[in-house]
Amino acid sequence: MKTTERKLSRNYDRAAWFYEASSNIYSTGQIKVAKLSQLRFMQPGQSILYLGVGAGEDACEAAKQGLKVTCLDISQGMLNRLQRKLDRAGVDAELICGNAFDHCRFGEYDAVATNFFLNCFKRPMMREMMQHALGLVRPGGRFFVADVSPPQGSWPARLFNIAYSKWAMAAFWIMRLVPWHENYNYADELRQLGIQVDEVSNFRLAGFGPIMFQSVAATKLANLTSSVPKPHLGVPNVAPEVLDRRSSGVNHGS
Predict the structure, then answer these.
(1) Roughly what angle, to the nearest 10 degrees, separates helices 3-26 and 76-89?
(2) Cα separations (Å) of 9 from 13, 198, 225?
(3) What's the CA gap between 212 and 18, in Å, rounded?
(4) Mean pLDDT on 38-44
(5) pTM above the 0.90 mark?
(6) Position 177 pLDDT exceeds 90
(7) What is the pLDDT of residue 229?
């Protein structure tokens, strides 16, 4: 593992103990609901890869429902927490600690989920990671992404979305976990790649407030060739400017 990747891994290891719990408090449980909503598109026995799985509440539930689950994360601390979940549930999953760009089982999975993972990158690398992830999906397979919703609805709702999401992003930025960026419209990004978007589900804060989270379910059509990944030039699994700051020892904050 490269020095820059080790630094990123260490940052997520330090956050592992509170990462999932704090996310569900922040989202009033809607992050978990958004991720678990994807399982209705899957059948027992199908294979699914979770990229950037974190502590893996969605992956554990998928294993409990009889899916063949593979989980990848750059943080061993996150994977250790997931393993404890799997042990308590009495189910198994393949756990891989490493850089997502190094995972090259192209066309092998019935589905790939990138839940709250693509927001770890600025737009150019987010698009590169999305294409890489799509290359891992078999023709006709599923692609899922749950994340913060782009602002939508009335102007007060849009302003709330921006303010509420950005203070959380600021906290993760201070902890050197993510770069600063806008909220992505993943459905539009997938359509531009020729991916069929089947459903976009919105989730409101506390179940009735402004739309804050979103889950996109898509299908990689059997005749699609545009999502074949290009060779990756060894860029680590995070936005370049974040790594530059970390490797140079520069602290940053809001």
Answers:
(1) 50
(2) 6, 34, 33
(3) 21
(4) 98
(5) no
(6) yes
(7) 52
Write out the two tokens for 234: 């060894």
Domain boundaries in the chain? Answer: 3-223
Q: Would you state the pLDDT for residue 42?
A: 98
Q: What residue type is assigned to position 202 of the chain? A: N
C-alpha 34/C-alpha 145 separation (Å) is 9
Residue 11 CB partners (closer than 8 Å, separation 6+)? 175, 176, 177, 246
- How many CA atoms, within 13 angstroms, populate the side-chain half-sphere of residue 214? 20
* Level-2 CATH architecture, domain 3-223: 3-Layer(aba) Sandwich (3.40)
